[in-house]
Amino acid sequence: MARDPFVVVGGDAAGLSAASKFRRETDRDVVVFERGRWISYAHCGEPYFVEGSVERLTDLLSLSPADVAERGIDLRREHEVVSVAPGDRTVTVRTHDGTVEQPYSELLVATGASATTDPFDTTLDGVFTIHGLDSAAAVDAFLTPAGEYDRGRLGDGPVDEARVDHNAALDPPERAAIVGGGYVGVEMTEALTARGVDVHLFQRSEHVLPPFGTSVGERVESHLADRGVTVHTGRSVEGLIGDGRIEAVAYDGDRLAVDMAVVGIGVEPNAAILDGTGVDRGPGGAVHTDGYGRTSLPAVYAAGDVATARHAVTGEETWVPLGLTANRTGRAVGATVAGDPTPVGDVAGTAVVKAFDMECGRVGLTDEAAARAAGFDPVSATITAGSRSGYYPGGDETTVTLLADRTSGRVLGGAIAGRDRAAVRIDTLATAIGGDLTVGKLERQDLAYAPPFSPVWDPVLVAAKVVNGRLDG
Amino acid sequence: MARDPFVVVGGDAAGLSAASKFRRETDRDVVVFERGRWISYAHCGEPYFVEGSVERLTDLLSLSPADVAERGIDLRREHEVVSVAPGDRTVTVRTHDGTVEQPYSELLVATGASATTDPFDTTLDGVFTIHGLDSAAAVDAFLTPAGEYDRGRLGDGPVDEARVDHNAALDPPERAAIVGGGYVGVEMTEALTARGVDVHLFQRSEHVLPPFGTSVGERVESHLADRGVTVHTGRSVEGLIGDGRIEAVAYDGDRLAVDMAVVGIGVEPNAAILDGTGVDRGPGGAVHTDGYGRTSLPAVYAAGDVATARHAVTGEETWVPLGLTANRTGRAVGATVAGDPTPVGDVAGTAVVKAFDMECGRVGLTDEAAARAAGFDPVSATITAGSRSGYYPGGDETTVTLLADRTSGRVLGGAIAGRDRAAVRIDTLATAIGGDLTVGKLERQDLAYAPPFSPVWDPVLVAAKVVNGRLDG
Predict the structure, then answer these.
(1) In terms of CATH, what superfamily is B357-470?
(2) Of the candidates A392, A423, A449, which has its C-beta nearest B48's C-beta?
């Protein structure tokens, strides 16, 4: 009797990376269930589609169903896995034609994450989360004068036509509130500003982009203000008010009249299909996994935004849903299930974000409180240094925050902001963390220098010099 | 009796970094002898001054004599140290007023390197090496129509007026030969093209920028050709021909009429002041130093372009004269002499260069022959990958060559070329080498991803995936 197939739940980055790698390594069958109509699309590109720098919605697709079939993957769209029976090694799948049981030899849960909206009423017209191509299409249609939407923008894909039609018929907004100053909030601020909307960005805590720390937050706020954005930090939006269509946001006892709102307050793992299985959970309710993507259930793996990972700095379990991790962990599980045990790798929480001309990066632990909470004795510094030799035109002040542990000297994390090649520099710190470098050793790294690209002492090295000096103190 | 001073020979990057760090750490005296009139200037900026992107020659100065005095450093310009008597701990110094003996408690030789010119006649008008501010000023004056030189370009510094006057009176060139396709050659190609000169670049070996390897060389040659440069690779220039002023270059039995030539065929260490001392020499005739910058002579240190260093990949002694190394090793020696023993750090041969819009980087060992010669069993790959998500505008194909050792899996080196933030990415590889990462671990590094800055798999990760796959094979 043939073995049951490798079953993958979720047809995006982690799921299709796993299935593709698996098929490259074996002749065994793999079935991918995707509850929606879209597969393999770039979540991270949605703000740039809205902004207009991406021409067509379908430019955000990576693999087509035909590409997937060509790889020998049995892809079934609009098939929703609703439960897992780990004892029987079966999943229950809901389709348009009813419910079926599918046995598996190994199961990968790659169901991703969804935008959190609680406590906001996102059913009002003009209120959006940015999560999935249908929401990006809806926003794009909404931003266009009523009746003038160019459907060529959508390309040829399985878009939610009714939702596009509904939004295309509405009057476009003049003023938008962005609720939440994380990645999505900042990127949508740029996108909506580019589309001519007056944007008010609300962030509950003291600074936007909290994971990037204060030094980055301050530079981004200043840059957003320069571009005409009104930034409300330390302001909690309590509700979205309207009758049919949004009319205002309520915050801290005040109100601001708006005719659009984007809610970007976070994501939560789509882990409900494992409810009732007794699977171990980790931070954020994500599915606990080990160094090979294994969950606590036999033959059940998890990868991507639904799964936890080990943090490269703390060694603790963490949940950082991001694109590279989804691709890498999915690919590793595909190899492991195919018979080549492959570590999924640690996450360092590396992230970069663009806010107009400002480039920002972060990695590891970016503030002393977080470092202390993780058991370290942090020493940190924030410096600014030129991105190029001072005499060479086109450079910009680059701000670097760097943290190290006083006891071991290890680099714990950092953040970078600046307009000239600042973001890519975070990879130097990420790799320093990956190599367990002390800040003293980081200071002695032979980094690149040429006047158009760096001063003699790269901003990262300047920060290392200062932190290393404080370590000795 | 007071101790004799710390004596530093050379008033540029290494020497003044050492003296400055020393004075920050102690109250002891430090004397810096500089044979020329200029101090603390940016060699690497000279092509950009010639190009016109740096407004004034003196913009290339970092510290003024007054800044140096303010740091408590006894700087003596136009004082040439001609010999060292290590037994007596004295140096002999030639000045305009004769020769004096200066005792030292510790000595730092930071005399730098000079451009090699053999076998070329560089006394002809129109023939230049680019080494020092006076040569940059001379070229700038030469490129300007006779009699029209704007002396405001020079700023207020101790320039060689006679040399400027001589060149300003000559007719500007129409066609230049650049002899040597290294950094200086490529940067001067860009600079002279920007000044309207028809440039012919001659490189003896098969590709320009030999230390960057074939993949980078090919891209740069193609890009130079796109910009109207005539690139002659595999062509040896045998002589510069002319009577008073250069009229032609002779190469491989052929001739090309030119009215300017720039000779950029390499540099040699200015180590002659140690002749007769029996000091140990290393590669290229540079002064042998250990991990703290000590030479084989008691109390004599060397740093910067005159000194050898340990290679981060091979562990062998090497000579790679570059700007960051000069600053870092000088600073470390200053700290060590002041009583805080500080390693000078290894060099990985990290370098970046700009050729018009093309950004190039290299680190470690960039070709299999060099890796085999160093005792490794190299596995390598050259890949191209986008610098941004494919749907995001403004990206460019980035070429990455990566080498690893089959036995240990260690990353040995690599090279990068591309038009979009390619050069800074070499720091990721430099740090991977600094952290002794295997290519498998590099593949799992949590590097940054956002559509404007990187595809999900950064080009460096794509290269690591391919090389790691070949390691297993």
Answers:
(1) FAD/NAD(P)-binding domain (3.50.50.60)
(2) A392
Q: What is the pLDDT of residue B139?
A: 98
Q: Is B360 a catalytic residue?
A: no
What is the C-alpha separation between A468 and A429, in angstroms, rounded? 15
Contact B53, B136 (CB under 8 A): no
Name residues whose C-beta falls within 8 Å of residue B239's C-beta, 6 or more positions apart in sequence.
B119, B120, B121, B249, B250
pLDDT in tens, B191-213: 999 999 999 999 999 999 999 99
Helices (H), A227-345: 323-337
Per-residue pLDDT, B473:
61
B6-36+78-114+268-337 topology per CATH: FAD/NAD(P)-binding domain (3.50.50)
Set of chain A residues whose Cβ sits within 8 Å of the Cβ of B428: 427-428, 430-431
- Asked whether the whole model's pTM tops 0.90, one would answer yes
Query: Which CATH architecture fits A127-265?
Result: 3-Layer(bba) Sandwich (3.50)
Q: What ipTM does this complex have?
A: 0.97
Which of A352, A442, A446, A457 should be substituted to probe chain B, the one whose Cβ sees the most B Cβ atoms within 10 Å?
A: A446
Looking at chain B, the whole-number percentage of residues with pLDDT higher than 70 is 100
The catalytic residue among B42, B44, B194, B374 is B44
Mean local confidence (pLDDT), B272-282: 98
Domain ranges for chain A? 6-36+78-114+268-337, 127-265, 357-470
Query: CA-to-CA distance for B166 and B164, rounded, in angstroms?
Result: 5
Return the amino acid letter for B365. Answer: L
Domains A127-265 and A357-470 share a fold: yes
Q: How far apart are CA B237 and CA A190, in angstroms?
A: 54
